[in-house]
Design goal:
This protein is α/β, with parallel strands linked by helices and 69 residues long. It contains one helix and four strands, in the order βαβββ. The protein is 14% helix and 30% strand.
Length: 69
């Protein structure tokens, strides 16, 4: 990361209980366009498990936004 550069993160929302590799297509495109500035991408979905798809890409249950830790 170069000093003074902004970082880029992406969030997608999916109304389904499963996430497939193809569901990350938009985040992967953003990742390629942003290059080194890309820090993370998240698909929020209606499932139960948090999953890593590698290279800073994750699927996270939308319900975690409202859960207390």
């Amino acid at each position: 990361m170069l000093e003074g550069e902004g970082v880029v993160a992406g969030v997608e929302v999916k109304a389904a209980a499963t996430v497939l590799e193809s569901d990350l297509r938009g985040l992967r495109k953003l990742q390629g366009a942003a290059g080194r500035r890309f820090v993370a991408g998240v698909v929020l979905y209606d499932g139960k498990a948090t999953m890593s798809f590698g290279n800073g890409l994750f699927a996270v249950p939308v319900r975690t936004l409202w859960q207390e830790t």
